Structures are given as C-alpha cells and as structure tokens.
Fold each of these.
Amino acid sequence: MKTLLKISTLLILLYNLSFPQFYADSVLADEVVEFVNIANEKTVNFSLYDRPKIEFTDDELEHLLVLYYKCYSISPVCFNDYMAEEHKKWEKASINVTKGKMKLRSWLRIYALVDELTEQYGREFITIIGTPAILKCKYIRLDYSQYDLDESTKFRVHNFIFVVEDVLKGNKYFRMGDTISVDMIPNIESPAPSFVTGKSYLIPVTTLLGHQDDGFNTIFAYLSDQQSGWVMGKPPKTFPIENERIKNLEFFGIKDTNWTDFKKYFKETYLIFE
C-alpha cells in the first residue's frame, strides 16, 4: 500500500511539472563568449558618466544581431552564469578605483551593445529575439511557494501553472504537452498578470538566474516598447487566444489574427537566424 502511495505521489509530481526547461543541454556557447568579448572591447573607454555611441559597420551590426539571438536561444542559463563571472572580474578590477574612472559594470556593457542594436533594428524586434522562449499555453491554476533570498529575506512566489500547447520559440527547452510553472514575485511596481482557467495565452518566458540558483528557472519575460526596460506598475505582457484567434498584437506590429497566420508571421519575422 505504501509503495502504491509513493508511486501515485510521484506520478502527480511528474504531471504537475516538466523539467529541465531552460537547463536542458545547457552548455556555454561560443556565441556567448564572442558577444561578451565584443562588449568588453567596444566599451573599453566607457564609464558610468561617459557612454559615447559605439561605431559599427552594417556587417558588424548584422553579425552582432545573430550573436545576440543565439546567446538566448542556445543557452540563456550559461549566459547568466558567464556574466556572473564577468561581474566578479569587474568587482576585482574596481577595487581602489576612483568613482569617476570606474568602468561600466559587466551587464551595462551588454546593454550598451543592445542599445546599438535597438537603434538599428527597433526595440520590439530586439526584445523578442532576446526572449528565450515564446509559448502558446493553457492556464491551469495558481500555486504558491517560498523563495529564501537569505535567512532573513523570504518572498512569496506566485507559480502560474500552464500546459504548453505550442512552441513558437524555445523548442530546445519546451515541448507540446509539458506542464510548466512560470514564476514571479508580484509587487506594486510589477503586478501579476491576470489569467482565466482553461483559456489559452501566448506567454513570453525567460530565466532569471544561472546554474548557481534554480529558484527562478522560468519567469515571465517583460516585453517593452519603451526606452526603459522596466515599466513600473504594469504586469508582463501576455496575449489571449480565443477560438484560435490571438489578440492584442500591437507589440508585434500587426492586428489580431488567427493562430495559424500568426505562427507563419512569427517564423518569417523572428526566427530568421535558426
């Protein structure tokens, strides 16, 4: 009887969450190393108070665009880990450096390159290709868990449970039929999105951390069409799908349309580096 109970519990757990999600086949890609090396080289004369425009040829920008896409499509977890190591190098090099001469933090070097790509190709396009996975999901329920940042700092996590119905981007990490948890810690600056049980949505997702901490493996990706990537007081963008018609597509530059046509448009517009 105890054995049957253990098996039943295991089956429930397997049904509830599919893994490994963004940790699948996670290896440090050559594209990540090259992209970071370019960021370090091109921003060598930057400081916190002096961020001149970076000069690229059209061919260099196109190459940079492909690298950026692949940093997130091949291994976003390893990208985060690699940047964590770069940050450690920055901290070590910044010891005893006067404030005015301090170089840009590691992620700010990356953002400087992304700004150049954004100026050339548009914020919406760059935001989408920098989103590791975009999924059609059916909303199941809301669960809760606790995330302990340290012994004295604990957060209540919202775990939004979905079943993946289709994968537009991120088929290395997600499959149709997966049951996944997309997590966030809502607050006034970043409220939770609203879902209806049993309804389908297009959900952009990413990962917050690297291998060093799996507390937030899969989270909502913020799609922003504004200069600031952090829009206070607004929930993450999601796109409802009713009767196989997807709505609120202004961010993608098109009107509401049927799911089949949207898939074709998405592939032709955003998956050009596969």
Amino acid sequence: MENNFIKKIKIKNFFSIKNEIEIDFEADDYTVKHHKDRVFQYENRYYNKLISLYGANASGKTSILKSLVVVGAIINNESSTNVPFSIKNKYAHANSKTEISINFVLVINDIAQEFQYLLILDSNKEKINYKISNEIVYIIENNKRVTFLNRKDKKISIDMDGDTKTILFDNLKDTISTIKEFEIFDKDTKILPSIKRFLGYIPYLTNINSAFFTSFGIKEQDEERLMLDIVNDDNLKIFLSKFFKSIGLDIANIDVEFKLDDNNQVVGVKNILLYHDVNKEIPIEYKLESDGTKMLFKVLIDIYLAKQRGSALVIDELDSVLHAMIVPLLCKLAIDNNVQLIYTTHNIYNMKFLYADEIYIIEKDNTHSTKIIEPKKQNNIKGYENFLIMYEENLLGGLPHFSNIFTKIEND
C-alpha cells in the first residue's frame, strides 16, 4: 500500500533558524536491509517513518516542527492574526525573506507522486503579520522539477477559465494561500486539494497550538472535534481502551457527555468521560486526569487520525509528561500503522530503540547558527549502535554545554 509522507525539509530565516538548514529523511542501507517495516518506499528509494529531533534546550528543535505547522496553518488560512510578526526572533535576519521548502510524496488516484512546496514570506522589522511573497508547487519527475503553480508569475496548470484565473490572481491577498484560493477549481489533477489535505491537516494533529506554542494534552479548541470523533467512531474507543490496558492503565471505557437544552434534547458535546476499573460506574472527566494521561490520550488519538487521513504527525516534546518507557511503544505504534511521526524529545533513553537514520541532533553555534548532526552520515557508524551510550559519551554532539556549574544561592 502506498502512503503519504514527507521526504525532506529546508528552512531558512524562520523563528530561531537564521541560516538555511536541510533535513533529509532518506533511510540508510542498514535500516532498509534489516528493518523495512520502519521505512516508506518511493520508486527505488526509502524514507523513514520515524524522525527524532534531539538537542539541548533552545537549540531550535521546535522551530523545525513549527515550519510544518505554519505552512499548514497558512494553507488553511487559519492563522493570519496569530503568526508572530516577522516569524523570527532577534537572532535572525530581520530584512531577509523566510523560506520553507517541503518535499513530500502523495498518493493521488492510487498513483504515488513527489511534490515540492516552497513558501516564501516577506519579513521586516515592523510589527506586522506574515505576508506571502511567493508560493511554488513543483511536480518532481525523474529528479527534475516541473512547475505546477507559481504565485508570483501567476502560473497554474489547471483547466479553468482564463478570466477567472486572472481575477483570482489579481485579487489574491498577501495573507491568503494560493492553494486555499484555487483548490476548488482543481477537479482534474486533484493536486491542490490533495496538498491542502496533507499539509493542511498537520496543524490539527499536533500539540503546537494556533498561537504556535506547545501544549500538553488536547488543545481547547480541538476538544469538541475530538469528542465528536469519539462519538462517531467505536473503533477509536476500542483502540484507546486496548492501548491503555496494554500499558497498565485501568481505563475500562471511554464515553462522551452531551449538552442538553431545557427540553432535554442534545445540542452538543460537553465532556470526554473516562471510566476506571476501580469504579466503573462513576467516570472522571478528561480535564481532571493527570497531565500524562491527557498527553497520552492526545497522542493516541492523533496517531489514529493520522492513519485514517493519510497525514504526517508532528509532536513537540513527546516525552515531556510521559514515562520514558511509553515513548518507544508510541513510536512502534506509529511505525506499525504507517504513520510518519516527526517529534522533538529530550528522552535519550529512547535512543536505545532507534537506528542511526532516525536520529537528528540539533545544535546552535556561538553565532546562533543552526547545525544538523546526522549519525547516519558518520563513517564510523554502522546503524545499529547503542546511541544512548554514544550520546552520553558525547560522540554525537548535542549535549548541553556545562561549565562552572552554579549550585549555591548566596545570601546578601
């Protein structure tokens, strides 16, 4: 079965990333030979289902994830008032444009095809929201790019009335995505609606909220949507209950409490209810559960929905409130269900369960430039080493820089 997945990301001048970085998710020979279940195949090459971003605090890991979330939000036209002005911090180049490029494979009409989406954003020192300078969609054929859409050149390869096309381009606001504006006209190739579904669904399946900050658990604005998913999908409830049981949580059943009007008619959904084995008659509201249970609940639902919708899953600080031994189980859950999981983590324990091509270490140098360290590219690494030990011995990089450690607070 073919799957949708991301192959490569390039980012320049975005949030804390001022230089251009590239992360290529191509798998190495060892993983392809010994662990084919952990990779996607496209043509004659293989790409990882699991991408783990490691690094010290403030190294830029979250900025990489935000690039995917911001692209999805812009394509959905849902964040024009939330994107931070200039979408960069003070270390970036204030007057230079922001560029985000994503190479990905989509299955359209049962045929897998590679695309590249390039988003260029204007940026300056003024306190304004983003402005789209250009959007380009390339179809990649035989390693060559064929332009399907170029916003600045007013070019788009779909069959539509020329006057309508001209009017739409001429009146396109600089905060509205070309894909958002034109996808309803692309009924033949289905490329634009497919891109919108794939990239545009990423902001729904993440714990980076609409203001582009990380939250742990279900985002408030998503609770009602997730309640409806639970109401309408018995398989989701069964899946959640089975996983909870498998890791020793005593959640026996999951249900939803409805909102009722004065006539006792259902008018909406109110709460997610979790029934525990200790008392199967009295539920606990989701909001009253522990942070770890809420985060686990969120991640499990996102993996389930990512599988259903053929989307990639982006999670910041996956290990933040979860037990270290649960993280490799969630990674295996994603792998076994062909869900591409891209996440940041400080859980070095999980390195024991990863291979060289699934680890990316993010560092900042003394000029605040971002550096990507890829163990798979180091000549002395075979692919199956214990990367926890190697990381602890500083053979991979990405350790916090300790010097003259301060541990005593002096009184005046």
Amino acid sequence: MKDVQISIIMATRNREAILWQTVEKAIAAIEGKNAEIIIVNDGDQKLVPGEAIANKIQFLNNPFRGVSFARNFGAANAKGNILFFIDDDMWINSEAIDWIAHFMQEEKNNKAVYNLNWQYPDELNTALNKTKIGRFLFIAAYHRMWGRMKQNGTEPQQGFYECNSIASCSLLMHKNLFNTIGGYRQEFIFQGEDIELSNRLRSLNIPIYAVFDVLLYHNHQDRMEIHGFLKRVEQGYQSEFKARAAGFLPKIDEEFTGSKKTAFEIIRITEPLWIFTYKVLPNLSLLNKLNARMVGLLSGLQKFKQWKNNR
C-alpha cells in the first residue's frame, strides 16, 4: 500500500472473552500491510492485552462515555487516512484489508461510505441451530448482513448495493469525509447513532453502499440464550429512546397507541410469566414458528418499555 494506510477502530465494552479472539484475527489480517488496530475500551473493566499482542495494537481508555465517543476518540488518534470501524466481535481477514487498500486508493471512491458484507461463522451457526434463540435468529435472517438490512429479493453475490442506512459493525470511509460530517453524535451511548448518522449522510447526499465483494464474520456468541439476547435489545432501545426524548432523533409516539399499547402494557406487567413460558417451551424444530413469535414479542416489549420510560 503506497498511499493508503488503514486505521481499524474497535470500540469495546465488557466483552473481554470475545474481544481478544477478534483482536487476534485482526492482527493476522493486517500482517505485512500498512494498517493499524486501535482498541477503545469503553467498559469499567481494566483490559490487559497479552504480551504477544500488546505491541501490535494501540490501546485507548474511554470508560463509559459511550460507543459514539469511543469511535470518535479512536478516529482522532488514527494515523491512517482510511477509517474502518468494526465491532469487537467482527472477524476481519487479509482479503478484506487488501480490497480496502486497493479500492480506497481511487479518489473517486472516497466520497461515499461502505458497509462490508458479513455473516455468522459456520461454527456459531452450528451451535445456534441447537438452541431456540438461534433458530429465531435464522428465521429473522439476523445471521447475515442482507437479512439485517431487511431488503427484498436475492442477496447479491458481488458488487455494490446502494442503501439508506449504515451499520457501524463494518463501516468504511475516508478520514476526510468522517471529519467533514462531524463524526458520530456523542449523545448516543449504545444504539441509535447509526440511525442519526444515516440521516445526516442522506441529508448531505453522501451515498451509502453495502459491499458484497468481500465477506467478514460476525461472532455474536452472546446471543445464545434469551436473557443475554433481551439484555442487549433492552440496552439498545434504552440508548435510542433517550436520544429520541432529547430530540436527537424523531419521536415515534404513533407506534404504541390504542389496542397495541394496551396489549404491551399487559405483557409488560406479566413479563416474568412470558419469559418462564418461553424457557419451558420444548427445544423442538417443529415449534420454531411459535418460538419466533415469542422472541419477537419479548423483543418488542423491550422497545415498548423504553418508549414508555423515555416519553
């Protein structure tokens, strides 16, 4: 890479078991390449990298200031002119780094933002398929970027797909563009920052593309059981609705009205019973549809509770 240096920025909060495996794969991916890895610790747990990797990463502390602040902090300390934001459970590879280096050398490609394609690793899919929550993720297509994008039609096998929103788990852009748009809005602590940033990009007519020429692996190991899954859903909506209440995103009062509001209020009061019922539901494939409905209902309940608490 003659003129391109890539800064890989990874914010993390209290996920040490997952983090170091991700870091090891990132180090292997950039070996011999003009790239750096920046880890921004946003948790309350002290992280101590092993001796084998300590001199191969830049390590910054950002205790509980939130994911948006952490990413901005990482970008401010980046030496590269290409910023590649990934989650602490996103496995990257050398093919993706080579693709970024080649593609971003062209100045015309530096005026848009890109999400690199991902899916769950095969070993995680195998483990998830044995669980009720895992089969829900497959039905909802949450195990692939295309499914998370909620697009109709067949997933592209290669090339670019223009879309309306970004996802910071695998987000690529030029540093000049990041600085021009002002980075992430730091009031967003855990979730909602991607919605706000997407709105800003569209208002500035900056294209957003999903890239299917490379493939990463998203290692969502902490989605294996219902409590861990619902906790992250709850935390996400809590951050998002606090931002909506503060005026950083439009409110969505019309979503919970009339009979829907009444139904969710009843479910809220009886939530322990619903979770108990889900847990005792037999782990059988023939109950997949019922299982998916219950997980969807409990996920919707987390959204309703945060809407109710932050009106």
Amino acid sequence: MAQQNELAPNTTERHQGRLAYLEDDFVPKAITGEIFAKAQESSLALRVADSIEVTYGETVIPVTTTEPEAGQVGVGTSNAQREGYRKPISGVAWGSKSFSPIKIATIVTASDEFARVNPQNRFNSLRDKMSRAIGRAIDLAVFHGIQPLDGSAYLGIDADNVLVNTTNSVSIAPTDDVVTKLLEGYDMVSTDFEFSGWATDPRYRSRLAAAMRATDQDGNVMSPGQINLAAQSGELLGLRNEFGRAVGGDLGAADDSGVRLFGGDWNQLKLGYAEQIRFKVSDQATLTDGVNTVNLWQTNQIAILCEVTFGWVVGDLDAFVKFAPSGS
C-alpha cells in the first residue's frame, strides 16, 4: 500500500524509504547488521572494456579498413635480380565508427524521519546501492541493450554495439563436451581477430569446473582445473575470464537471455564516461512519477539522484561469440 505522497514505485515489493514499511517495533529492537545480503559484484562491462574518452556529443573513431602490405622487389635474390627494379605500391583505406552517449539515472526518496532515524544505516547505504544500480544499467546496455528498471530496450542505441547481437553463436547441449564447444567458438572469432578472453555467467561455474578437470588414463581426477569457484576473475583455457550476471541478462526486471558465456577480442569493446557518476540531494525539489506530483519540502521528504552519461562502441560484432546452453 502506497504511503501518503509517496512516489511510485510504492508497493511492498519495491518502495521508497519510509518507516511505515518497517515493522512497528523495528526501531526499538536490537538488530544486527545486514548479514544475509547477496554479494554485489562490480560492473562487468567496466572490467572487460577498454577505456576511451567520451564527449556529450557524437564521438567518431577512425578505423583502418585496409592495411598496407609489402612485396618483393625484383625477380630473385641476387644483386642483379633486385637492384634497379621497381618497388611495389600498396595502399591503405580508412573508415570510422561513431556513437553518441546515453544518460542513465535513478532517484530514490525517503521521508525526513527515515533519513534522521537511519534505521540500521539504511538511508546512508542508499548511495552505494544506487551506484551499483548504475553499474547494472551499464552492463545490460553493453551486453543486451535493455534496461534493468523495466526490461525495456534502450532507445536510440546502435544494435551493432550490443554484444548479444553477434551472429556468432554456439549451442551447448547437456551431453556436449564443453571444451570442444568453446574451441568451436574460439575458431569462429580467431580467424580474423585476436581472441583475448571470456565473460561468463557465474551460474555456469560448476559446468566449466567439471569440464576443466584433468583426469588420468583410468578416469581419475588429477586436478580441479582452472575455474576458481570463489573468484570474480580468472582463466579459462589459458585466457582471461571475468564472471558477471550481465552475461545472462537477468538483472533487475530484465529477462534471462539464456546466454552463459561470451568470448572474443575484447579490444573491440570501448567504453567511457562523458561525466562520472554523480549524486544530488534535495529536500526542495518537486518530483513526478508520471501520475503523482509531490513537493518534497511540503511533504517533508528527501530525494537522492544518481546519474551518469556514458557511451560505448563495438568495433566489430564478428569479434565476439556467444554460448547458449541448449536443453538446460
């Protein structure tokens, strides 16, 4: 049930900071810290992408489409066969990739009473939670082109800059040999690009760990392989591997795409900020949720705004491959 002058979302599942949502005797109780919270990961996109400078307007990146090549001078290896001969002429060609940044933001409000009581540090923790929300939004933009707020597509972005849109795809059935399938995807990319690493959904750790186990000729396990179940970063088949839920895509209200791994040439992914993440706090603003308009000063509320303007570009989607397990 929505509280007085509470902006949407205002249900018991997702609401603004109000003491009214807490149990009546919540504050007087002796409450421990939040010891059962789920682990929060850092942004996957920021870990795998190369950093570039981004402006508020369009960013244009020169791209060499044809490299100059060298050839032999003359008709042989002796002085007589190479001296005085005409040198071959090569050439070069350039193109460009361009993109414009997008802005993402989130606002959370709280009553003044909630902020002052700050039950179990919940009001003070909002900044950290909102920063992580921005990280999830960046990840879903880069990997899937959708928003964690409601699962809808980002508007105005180039589909060629969304990794899940690569046409390189490998399906892994439960009975398939995972290593063979990974190498199949590797070969799709490595012909024209430098395959540099992987991005993996943490839910696929156990399947990879089982596939990576070394066995002797009798089938006895010799080593647990390269997958560290506790690590956020590691190696897979000798290449860098980063774990993150953005691979599957089911962050916030977004649906699970079924993809469990991306691999490829991560030098083809560039990301940067036109402005760093910033916060604004106000008790004077007037806010609307699309239906209700509320004056914060008049209703004794505080609003925290977190926003960032960022952009990213993929040099070539063919530099990436996605892996989606079938029948699992």
